[in-house]
Amino acid sequence: MQQGKLNEMEYSILLVDDDMEFLDGARRALLANGVSNVTTLNGGSNVLKALETGAHTVLLLDWVMPGLSGADLLPEVVSQFPNIPVIIITGVSDIENVVSCMRQGAYDYITKPLDTTRLVSIVQNAVKNSELVVRNRKLTEYLLGEALLEPDNFSDIITCSNNMMSIFKVIESLAGSRHPILITGESGVGKELIAEAIHRTSGLKGKMVSVNVAGVDETMFDDTLFGHKKGAFTGATESRNGLIEEAKGGTLFLDEIGDLRSSSQAKLLRLLQNHEYYRLGSDFLHKSDARIITASNRSFPALLASGAFRTDLYHRISVHVLHIPPLRERPEDIIPLVEHHIDIFAKSSKRPSPKLSKQLCRALTSYDFPGNVREMINMIINVLANNNSEMLDVHDFPKIVSSIATRGDKVRKVLNGLLKKLGSFSDYPTIDEVVALFVEDTLALSHGNRSIAAKMLGISRPTLQKKLEQAADKRSGKTSISS
């Protein structure tokens, strides 16, 4: 059966293999199914040169070839041509090779002998994905510098990060789209807040309904999402609408979609493809107009390579993809977020908001927050529940102090970036003056704990003591150092 045709003037497929017979067969299969602009290369030696022309949209690349193999070329292609999806062709059934391809940035893979239907489907999806990537990149570049049209839609998200502002602008550009959106990012970065902002920006009249699908079995998924008819199972004494019905005219947000059981993925795929579903125990077909937003902290290349997540479902949920950066990649947001959540807790406890010492601010911005905003909130709640002082300092956050002690290199990098703010010299500083400044500031950051300070500086405690004595001697009048 012939697939929907692609515009041959806009799309070009580069097919690379060392087997001429395979190249001819694959090319004929694509031509027969409406993919008419196909260029073939016998071997990998001229692949990069061909891609440099900018004439090709998708690359199908054999993994094992004499000379330059797909394994050799994939990292180069991904690095030099990130907008070109690479589909790996392999006759090797070893799952480790497939996983390796996906982790290195391959868009998808197909095994020999070729399944024509799968080949055409993958190519067409790759073309659409390439188009969206280019469009979104150009759109993001165009929107940079433009003010938000409706900043109140993002008022729940505390940020001063340019990366986050770019995401907000892309969300506004998608306001009229009803296509699914996939939100990716580590646990605790605020993916649900982003989903809520997308819903507000969309202007949809219905409400946003959220459900976490991680670990939900097939029956519970069906009942929760689609509902059931009276008598559908033991205990079903009344009919019940599912969440998809509650989201009518609005948004259905499916969190942790990467953990959805395979038995439920096919039913979600049908909902996305046809906008229709059946309630448990009913043969009456219901229609849905809810916009679907999904989120996950999982690695989809690995999920797809292992077969844990359906490729066709992934392409359905990822028409638009938004990746939320972790907190460690936007340290400028850390202090505003800490102060915001301190204020929230203080108001709920009917007490004044404590201030942050300078040493604590530096320590907070040097901490990675592996649990992101969620870890930060838990940390603040714990600290304020046991502290009534008007000023919070480093010693109030033992987890951060402990992290500083084991990650001295990170702290030194941060302090180096702030050196011009921390030191004032009458002339260009000597090595001894710079060392003295580091020692003093490290002691302040470690709240006077010399063992921690020594670890941060990468020296022994006796050496630290010697440095302190030298600094004290220089302060007697020989050197002018201020911190």
Task: Describe the structure in your own words.
With 483 residues, the protein is an alpha/beta fold. The protein is built from 21 helices and 16 strands. It is globular, with a radius of gyration of 28 Å. The relative contact order is 0.07. The model is unreliable at 1-9, 408-427 and 478-483 (pLDDT under 50).
List the defining traits of the structure above.
single chain; 483 residues; alpha/beta; Rossmann fold; Arc Repressor Mutant, subunit A; 3 domains; 5-stranded parallel β-sheet; 21 helices; disordered N terminus; disordered C terminus
CATH homologous superfamily designation of the largest domain: P-loop containing nucleotide triphosphate hydrolases
Rg, alpha carbons: 28 Å
Mean pLDDT across residues:
83
CATH topology tier name of the largest domain: Rossmann fold
> Class of the largest domain in CATH?
Alpha Beta
**Major sheet:** 5 strands, parallel
Q: What is the percentage of strand-forming residues?
A: 5-15%
Helix content: 40-55%
Classify the secondary structure makeup into a structural class. alpha/beta
